[in-house]
């Protein structure tokens, strides 16, 4: 259980996006983008603009290339074809303009680093905090911990925190450099509904208060249904992009999966029935499963 649900507002605007004078200009631009490992095409012909403050949910079955897309955006994985600019430039590793919440793995119980140490590392990892006075760093770390409601356990070793508490600390760490883009890799996995709501609220508040673009990889759309601007659905080497209502339909997903899929709405939730969950289909470059907008 989290020790508190109280969160302080996140109101710090991020630094101006380099490479663009237009505050509404896309922060991520992919054109004709493809990623393949050997002859296995994860996705191709991907055109995508993500704008400041946008919440893009990335959905798809296991192995469809969701994490790989984040790795591309982080500059850790080159595209096989096409182009990518992030904040007007080719992405490079370690950019302080990108906050990253990696796929959740529980931190080992013996980890002695405290919550505040992890957040400080988020600043220093980008060499951003090093030029700041120690008092300023401490103040900023306190501010970040407060912003995610983690003040009560700021000095507790993170290995002793619950999954939900650790996730809050990871969010604070990802926000340590006031990023313009926040990449989240399944941050809701293994969290109960209450903690899922806490995490999605924190991420949503960040994008609304600081215009941070959010790329949110998730297996389940329902926890973010009310927040999502657009969905990018990856499957079988193809994709669909659009609003939730455009993408999450029986006809769109049936076309994407190449088999009949039912998408039904029950009590405000979206239920997908019949999608091959482990769609590890090998699609070759000349195959018939290319992506495209619905
Ligand atoms: N460096 C690599 N070299 C070769 N294959 C890779 C590499 N990285 C990932 N893959 C493979 O590419 C596929 C897509 O992996 P990725 O982690 O992007 O999928 P995902 O959609 O995030 O899956 P999951 O939902 O299971 O996390 C997987 O089958 C994975 O084994």
Automatic annotation (TrEMBL):
<keyword id="KW-0813">Transport</keyword>
<dbReference type="Pfam" id="PF00005">
    <property type="entry name" value="ABC_tran"/>
</dbReference>
<protein>
    <submittedName>
        <fullName>ABC transporter ATP-binding protein</fullName>
    </submittedName>
</protein>
<dbReference type="InterPro" id="IPR050153">
    <property type="entry name" value="Metal_Ion_Import_ABC"/>
</dbReference>
<keyword id="KW-0067">ATP-binding</keyword>
<dbReference type="InterPro" id="IPR003439">
    <property type="entry name" value="ABC_transporter-like_ATP-bd"/>
</dbReference>
<comment type="similarity">
    <text>Belongs to the ABC transporter superfamily.</text>
</comment>
<dbReference type="GO" id="GO:0005524">
    <property type="term" value="F:ATP binding"/>
</dbReference>
<dbReference type="GO" id="GO:0016887">
    <property type="term" value="F:ATP hydrolysis activity"/>
</dbReference>
<dbReference type="InterPro" id="IPR017871">
    <property type="entry name" value="ABC_transporter-like_CS"/>
</dbReference>
<feature type="compositionally biased region" description="Low complexity">
    <location>
        <begin position="13"/>
        <end position="22"/>
    </location>
</feature>
<dbReference type="InterPro" id="IPR003593">
    <property type="entry name" value="AAA+_ATPase"/>
</dbReference>
<keyword id="KW-0547">Nucleotide-binding</keyword>
<dbReference type="InterPro" id="IPR027417">
    <property type="entry name" value="P-loop_NTPase"/>
</dbReference>
<feature type="domain" description="ABC transporter">
    <location>
        <begin position="28"/>
        <end position="261"/>
    </location>
</feature>
<feature type="region of interest" description="Disordered">
    <location>
        <begin position="1"/>
        <end position="22"/>
    </location>
</feature>
């Amino acid at each position: 259980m989290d020790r508190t649900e109280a969160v302080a507002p996140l109101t710090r605007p991020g630094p101006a996006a380099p490479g663009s004078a237009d505050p509404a200009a896309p922060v991520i631009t992919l054109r004709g983008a493809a990623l393949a490992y050997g002859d296995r095409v994860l996705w191709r012909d991907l055109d995508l603009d993500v704008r400041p403050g946008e919440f893009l949910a990335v959905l798809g079955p296991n192995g469809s290339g969701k994490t790989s897309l984040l790795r591309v955006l982080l500059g850790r994985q080159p595209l096989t074809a096409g182009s990518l600019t992030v904040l007007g430039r080719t992405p490079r590793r370690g950019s302080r303009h990108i906050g990253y919440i990696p796929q959740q793995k529980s931190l080992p119980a013996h980890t002695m680093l405290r919550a505040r140490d992890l957040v400080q590392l988020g600043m220093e990892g980008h060499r951003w905090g090093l030029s700041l006075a120690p008092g300023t760093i401490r103040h900023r770390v306190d501010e970040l911990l407060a912003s995610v409601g983690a003040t009560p356990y700021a000095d507790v070793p993170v290995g002793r925190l619950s999954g939900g508490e650790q996730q809050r600390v990871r969010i604070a760490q990802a926000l340590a450099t006031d990023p313009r883009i926040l990449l989240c890799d399944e941050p809701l996995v293994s969290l109960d509904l209450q903690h899922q709501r806490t995490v999605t609220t924190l991420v949503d508040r960040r994008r609304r208060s600081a215009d941070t673009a959010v790329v949110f990889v998730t297996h389940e759309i329902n926890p973010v249904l009310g927040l999502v601007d657009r969905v990018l659905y990856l499957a079988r080497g193809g994709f669909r992009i659009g609003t939730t209502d455009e993408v999450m339909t029986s006809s769109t997903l049936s076309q994407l999966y190449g088999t009949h899929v039912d998408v039904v709405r029950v009590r405000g939730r979206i239920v997908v029935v019949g999608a091959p969950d482990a769609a590890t289909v090998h699609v070759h470059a000349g195959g018939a499963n290319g992506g495209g907008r619905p």
